[in-house]
Amino acid sequence: MSKKKVLLVIMVVICLTSIVGFLILYSRMPRWGKECQIFVMRSSSMEPTIMNDSFVVVDKSVRPNEIVAAPAPDGDIIAFYRPKGWRDPNDLIVHRAIDKFSKGNVTYFYTKGDANPWRDSWEVPEDYVLGKVVDVSLQPYTVWGLWLLVTAAIATVTGVLSLVLFVLIRAEKKVTKPISYPAKPPPIIRVCPQCGRVLAEEAKFCSNCGKKLKTT
Question: What values do phi and psi take at 65, rounded to 5?
Answer without folding.
Answer: -75, -10
